[in-house]
Amino acid sequence: MSYIIGVDCGTSGTKTVLFDERGAVIASKTIEYPMYQPQNGYAEQDPADWSAAMISTIKAVMVQSGVKKEDVKGIGISGQMHGLVMLDKDNNVLRRSIIWCDQRTAAEVEEMNRIVGRDKLVEITANPALTGWTAAKILWVKNNEPEIYSKVAHILLPKDYLRFILTGEYATEVSDASGMQILDVPNRKWSDELLSAFEIDKSWLGKVYESCEVTGKLTKCMAEELGLCEGTIVVGGAGDNAAAAVGTGVVEDGKAFTTIGTSGVVFAHTSSVSIDKEGRVHTCCAAVPDTWHVMGVTQGAGLSLKWFRDNFCMTEKETAKLMGLDEYYLMDKQAEQVPVGANRLLYLPYLMGERTPHLDPDARGVFFGLSAIHTRRDMLRAVMEGVTYSLRDCVEVFREMNVNVSDMMACGGGGSSPLWRSMLADLYNCNVKTVASKEGPALGVAILASVGAGLYSSVTEACGAIISADKVQEPDPANVPEYEKYYQLYREIYPALKDKFSKLAAL
Question: What is the C-alpha separation between 180 and 289, in angstroms, rounded?
């Protein structure tokens, strides 16, 4: 039996999982680390924490499993996207990493638009300039920390710093590099035009690989420390969402996944590059060679349900504690008693502004149609339906871009709710499935490593052999047209309120 290691470098911690070649979990270990916020809107982490966590978790899974080091055929790394790691000529980290959720770069986004132009940026990088993405952070250091910037010799993403620790190679791969805003996304290579415009030295950047390609091999020093063989391959890996796509089998046209966590993500695979010129969804290179993915985000998905739970569901919380049940299970049972449309009550889930399809930080949550007949359970059902309408909005943008969705996976906490899955199936009008494995990104990069190691001939073949559906929710033919009436009304509410949101923000 052959084995593969998947490392997932997240924001809260690094999780390493040892899989066998069929995708079964043999051992798993997670180590957490802090995030630093030196000022309001800043978010940083220490790359040394990531490195220490990776080393400790790999050692732990090898010890736990008792697997022979000769049987471990490869390593794949997934990571939080957009983080900036700067090294000097001696490979010392020059400053803490500015990570994905940092928002300090508004001035640099304006600078990028002024230098290159919004339309040109979208044409080359498939996305408008964004505060959380890497290019704006590079320019921020250049503008605000010139002494540090003058010492830069290498720029890496979080997972690519871990690759450097393992192999000594400066490299990245297309899915994660897509989130830097200096990659020519349609052509899957660094953009000389943008590097020149932003005065970023191309020699600072690693070689760009496809996600399943071998990018380097484990050094003797690291192999001895980890209890692995020198020369064990390390593949490109992938950014976290691209890795999750592979880990859920979303590797062919027509396939997509919906994640309902704090925010909601709808992610679809496409074999041809498709760019939304309005910037409502992100287009990036996929982890499958020569393919792409599109991704829409609704800010307040699971957050809306958590907000409702914390403020209005004390009874369910107390009852769940007494019965040893999950409070969300009891909330589902309450919402199930309400008909489709929540008795003519609609909810806009814009508690934190919105991204897809409305790029509007001023948008706010709304209950529309509230009357004296409505109960708490009606409001609960309306919240769940409103989040589902906003996720359907993402799918509608995909359809405008000629990206078809006919096979949907459901992930995240919300994906475990049968009621929410039924809403998704009815509003998407397609089957909604869950996957048997819950390892997501770690499994995804392990699959990429299994291809790099030659255990499978392609990512698609590997997913076909490893990924299996757990539950399948079919759309209810009676509910589909009923939901459609409410959804079409839902779509009219934001345009009617758009100006009012901005007036409210100005008060």
Answer: 19
